[in-house]
Amino acid sequence: MSGRGVERVLDMIEWFAASPEGASLSEIAAALAMPKSSALLMLQSLTERGYIHRLGSGEYQLLRLPGEISQDGRNYGALIALVSSYLSQAVEQTGESGFIAVLEGQSIRYLNKVLPKREILYDRDIVPTRPAHKVASGVVLLAAGSDTDIEAYAASVSLSEAEHSKLLDAVSSARISGFYLNAMGVVEGAAGAAAPIIGANGKAIAAFNISGPQGRFISNSDRISDVVRETAVAISEELARRGRRLSKGR
Predict the structure, then answer these.
(1) Closest Cα to residue 123, out of 57, 213, 7?
(2) Distance separating the N- and C-terminal Cα atoms of the chain
(3) Non-local CB neighbours of 246 within 8 Å, separated by 6+ positions
(4) pLDDT tens per residue, the chain (250 residues)?
């Protein structure tokens, strides 16, 4: 393969890393300014190597970055790789546990976690999903949607009048402050704060969360909330920069 061929393969992988949603062959070829035939050959090679996945709709999604092993078969590999250093840094700054979460239907799914190096810490099994309205990550991702989306969610999970009112208050708080602090987590004795990660398309694609033992967390909630909000903004800005860089010179 020529040097230009290698560059184009890397361009495609980087483009997918900044574009977590699925894309058609026509969209990919247009974004990378290459013939459909060339784009298709690259997509076929990347699919065979397990970097790209073709959906039933015919669209393509990124499974993982080179050197990264994806166990879940979803298109979150690039996101996990991107936020890894930010997650570790935030955990070091706060001394509490860090998580990355996404909204899947009515549930929050945790993609990754980093635990602090201290004797007493908060940990959670990230395999089970959680109802979105019960966790800080879910609140900020619901808040990023429309009022219609929130009402549809409330109806789909059959919220009581009290639960509905509580969710609306939480969403309002998250929209005003840019993050949400949940002083009483699903796990007894835990608390957490989360902020949305905004993708290059301007939509919330994930949530950045720091959680810890309730008493210790609340006593440091201002500092932790600042770290959560600032880290989510930094990740969002990097995604935006990648999007702008990849759109230039095409």
Answers:
(1) 213
(2) 21
(3) 11, 14, 15, 18, 31
(4) 555 678 888 888 888 877 767 789 999 999 899 999 999 999 998 888 778 888 888 899 887 666 444 444 455 766 777 788 899 999 999 999 999 999 988 999 998 899 999 988 898 888 889 999 999 999 999 999 999 999 999 999 999 999 999 999 999 999 999 999 998 877 788 999 999 999 877 889 999 999 999 999 999 999 999 999 999 999 999 888 876 655 554 4
- Please, what sign has the CA dihedral across residues 122, 181, 148, 62? negative
Positive or negative, the CA dihedral 59, 64, 69, 74 is negative
Neighbours of 183 (CB within 10 A): 13
| Phi and psi angles of residue 8, each rounded to the nearest 5 degrees, phi first | -70, -40
pTM above 0.85, yes or no: no
Tokens of 46: 């990347």
- Following DSSP, what letter does each residue of 138-190 receive, concatenated? HHHHHHTS-HHHHHHHHHHTT--HHHHHHHHHHHHHHHHHSSEEESS-SSTTE
- CA angle in degrees (0–180, nearest 5) for 24-26-29: 110
What is the token pair recorded at 9?
């393969």
